[in-house]
Amino acid sequence: MAEVGRAAVRDPGELLPGGFWEAVAVWLEKPQVANKRLCGVRLEARRRAALPWVSPRGRRPNAGPELEEPGAAGRGPRPPEGGPGRGPEESRHRRQQGEGPGEAAAAPLLVEGPGQPDKAGAGEGDFSAWDLDSLWDDFSRSLAGGSHELLAFLTGARAGSQPEAPSELDVVLRTVIPKTSPLCPLAAPRREVVVQDVLNGTVTFLPLEEDDKGNVKVDTNNVYQIRLSGSKEEWFISILIFCPERWHSDGTVYPKPAWLGEELLARLARWSVGSKKSGFKSTLSLISIIEYSKTYRALKEKHKDMVKVWPEVTDPEKFVYEDVAIAAYLLILWEEERAELGLTAKQSFVDLGCGNGLLVHILSAEGHPGRGIDVRRRKIWDVYGPQTCLEEGAITPSDETLFPDVDWVIGNHSDELTPWIPVIAARSHYSCRFFVLPCCFFDFVGKYARRQSRKTQYREYLDFVTEVGLACGFHVQEDCLRIPSTKRVCLIGKRRTYPPTGEAPMEEQRARYINSRRGRPVSPPGREPPRPPPRAAVARAGRPHGRQALAAGAAGLWLSGFRPREKAERVRNCAALPRDFVDQVVLQVGHLLLDAERPCAASAPGGSLKAWNRGGSLSLADVASELDGETLRRLKRECGGLQTLLKNNHQVFEVRSGRVHLRDWREERLRKQRQPEARRRLFSEAFKTRLCWFFSHHPDGCALPSDCCPFAHGPEELRPAQTPRRKQVL
Fold this sequence. Notes:
Catalytic activity: uridine(44) in tRNA(Ser) + S-adenosyl-L-methionine = 2'-O-methyluridine(44) in tRNA(Ser) + S-adenosyl-L-homocysteine + H(+)
Structural class: alpha+beta
Organism: Panthera pardus (Leopard)
Subcellular location: Cytoplasm
Number of strands: 20
Number of helices: 21
Strand content: 15-25%
Oligomer: single chain
Helix content: 25-40%
Family: Belongs to the TRM44 family.
Mean pLDDT: 78
Low-confidence stretches: 56-126, 157-165, 520-555, 599-609, 726-730
GO molecular function: tRNA(Ser) (uridine(44)-2'-O-)-methyltransferase activity; zinc ion binding
């Protein structure tokens, strides 16, 4: 045994030991956060267990039936009730019959229904998650039979002084999946058993190996442990390796010991006192990560040239690879759904608020019939070709926006349509499912209003959309996508909570819920509920849904007040204001700041003293009070108003903590010199492409000489702006 790293942790607010276990949970469930060479993990099974107790001299004491059955010589220790002695068949039977809260920890994770094997355990290798019981039973026998050194390593602090009875352990079976790259083929996933001993503050990682005959056992070469020790005054986190001389580093799943003792240890120490549970699911928890990795790599290679021809003003790399990742997720989700339901035809779809339409293009190219609808046509639509069906039109939730001919309704950053996606899917037909990726926060009508300060706005909004799905009769699942976005949690409704015969009462429940979001009271129990919208009556009368349901008009609307996005997107960041109006406001605010403080001596770049008026500082409220009413009304119609206009004029102003200052470019020049080379290169490309405001309007001129100022001191110094260079796509 060797300690490869030890870190002292200062606990500022009694966060330990709870924070330590939160940090361990990150390394257990999301190891790619620390090790970028990992694609992720799949938690396959979890159970409660106990280690056999061996005396310091190596003799097994007579501890009664808790550890050894009479007449069971040679069979190893008898585990406690509900522990590793249960075989897979008995465990499965008990799970089908229903277990108590304490026994439920032994059941596999991520199982959607009782008695159904976990997909990851059964589909991503030969070793099933249901074999964890027998595997742990065999491992316990080997520990009691002679592996006393490994047993002492597992028990940690108990190696010197044994307790009267073994403590309860939390045993997790997980699959670690390496990341792929164009130069590295997909490496085989590695399974390991993780043993968490909360009482003694240790978590031990036991890799598994399989011989030629298919027998699986623990590989003692790469066993390591994370340990918390100390007290309220002083805490230490250590990383230990069981056999350092036999440690084999593959560079991905099992890095070098130095990485464990330095990089991982530093992250664990930081997470222990600075991180909290995110409240979100693990990344890609509902699909096979291995299949996702393969599909994503193939789609990225197929559509990477789209970055070169991207005609929109948005960042091509972000939007292309984000839609590639979403498409890969949906393709694997739908592939597993076909296997589960025994389907052969590929699922159809409609993407509401499809935007650039790339997701529709990729899914259609992979053989899924579907279309996208958006209020505004994009330039990129012309690139896809006629095989990609994209429609321009506004979507107003009504009897005319139902889709009885599609299997899935998709809302990918669908803005004001986001809460309506589950409703549209539920009312289209009983077998329709939905996938929604919320971004902006909208209610059924207008912006979403926060109601709970204890949650983040994002978490609260996700809970609201989940609530909508439940009210519409869906079992709603949540997953976290691997996309370059801060809003990457998706919600999925695949199954209904009611049989097809319960459509009529469920429709009444939907109507009551939607009306309640407008402040209308929900009918108390026993009273007649509000009359459902016309679509429910149309459905019960057997008339067709969709565009043939009603001839249009206000009678088919589900809720008054909904407004779709405008066809012409308004620019409200002050960029569309006339140049002369902006120049007038900038000049007026500049003079206000110059008059706020008299000129003072300031050091010139050459070392001499030069009186250059840096001006004073004014609050935004003080600046606004000096502007006329018409100017303020014009600015208030823009997002951000006065503050946005001042920040847009970065050359002249600096806004900090609600106060406005004139920018001193002598200080900015020193900051630029300390920036990375790539940032300095971009700065040099914009050199002398605009006139210097201070040279033209400041009473003392510019504080920098002409050769040092990034702006032109007169029209003769101006040079044309360069077109931004895009990153090269390999």
